[in-house]
From TrEMBL:
Domain (Fibronectin type-II): residue spans on this chain: 59-103, 104-151
Regions of compositional bias (Low complexity) in chain numbering: 17-27
Chief place where the protein resides: secreted
Organism: Oryctolagus cuniculus (Rabbit)
Entry's family note: Belongs to the seminal plasma protein family.
Tagged with keyword Disulfide bond: yes
Keyword Chloroplast annotated: no
Full protein name: Fibronectin type-II domain-containing protein
Pfam family, one: fn2
SMART domains: FN2
Cystines in this chain: 109-135, 123-150
PROSITE patterns reported for this sequence: FN2_1, FN2_2
GO molecular function terms listed in the Swiss-Prot or TrEMBL record: heparin binding
Subcellular location: Secreted
Length: 151
């Protein structure tokens, strides 16, 4: 039987979450590919470890802001993650404050919108490979290329 290797932090006698900074980065605010997971706060009321860092930056009370900039990219809807819940920023430029998306948070169609130089006031099938109706998530699809299917 092989002995399990201890994580580096444990082997070195430190505990993650007590003033540690994660080296792993996350594109999701939860911490998988772009943002720190652990809090380095020394405040006595700070929550310890990764759970505290996540909970301190989450909010259920605020509204998603669209569009928002995260990772040098403008997002017109909640960011989907294959393993985690969809999320959105609570500011135009992501500043660490975010929330999980609900169906009510999803971006809405913007009317009128411009597509290929023409103005539309409702969902269209023009340009749809499967002839499914769609709409723009910004006033100018030609510029932003942000869209969703209409249901």
């Amino acid at each position: 039987m092989l002995a399990a290797r201890k994580p580096r932090a444990e082997a070195e006698g430190t505990r993650a979450g007590r003033g540690c900074r994660a080296s792993a980065r996350s594109s999701h605010p939860g911490g998988l590919n772009g943002l720190p997971v652990f809090s380095s706060s020394t405040q006595s009321n700070a929550r310890p470890g990764w759970a505290g860092a996540v909970l301190d930056n989450m909010s259920e009370d605020n509204k998603c802001v669209f569009p928002f900039t995260f990772g040098n990219k403008k997002h017109f809807d909640c960011i989907d993650h294959p393993l985690l819940h969809s999320w959105c920023s609570l500011s135009e430029i992501y500043n660490g404050k975010w929330k999980y998306c609900t169906d009510d948070d999803r971006a809405r169609c913007v009317f009128p919108f411009t597509y290929k130089g023409h103005v539309f006031n409702s969902c269209i099938t023009l340009g749809s490979v499967f002839q499914m109706s769609w709409c723009s998530l910004s006033p100018n699809y030609d510029q932003d290329h942000a869209w969703k299917y209409c249901y």
